[in-house]
Amino acid sequence: MVKAQYLDKANIDTKPTFERSTDNKEPFFTFVREHDSRLVQDICDGLRPSFAKEIPQLYVNLASQCMNATPSERPSANRIQKLLDDWIKEELYINMFREADEVESKSLEYAH
């Protein structure tokens, strides 16, 4: 059995967090292409999903940091938890996310 070496800033699975909350679409949905080995290679080469314009910039920044190609450059789980805790406590951040949710809800209403 081979022991894996884990980093403090390890590969935190961002999929549940960022999958649909960025533009209500699967990541890479806007790319008309197969989800195949070429997409995997493009992701390794730096391709990242896009974010809807109404998403608060601080969230975009965190998501981008979490998707950094260099694991040691990603925030630790403790850092992410601290940021999320801070956001929950501050009315300014709560309002940013509420406004983004309202814009998304309206756009979903128009889509149906």
UniProtKB/TrEMBL annotation:
Q: Which InterPro entries match?
A: Kinase-like_dom_sf
Q: Which superkingdom heads the taxonomic lineage of this protein's source?
A: Eukaryota
Q: Please give the name of this protein.
A: 19680_t:CDS:1
- Kindly give the Gene3D superfamilies that the UniProt entry links to this protein: Transferase(Phosphotransferase) domain 1
Species the sequence originates in: Racocetra fulgida
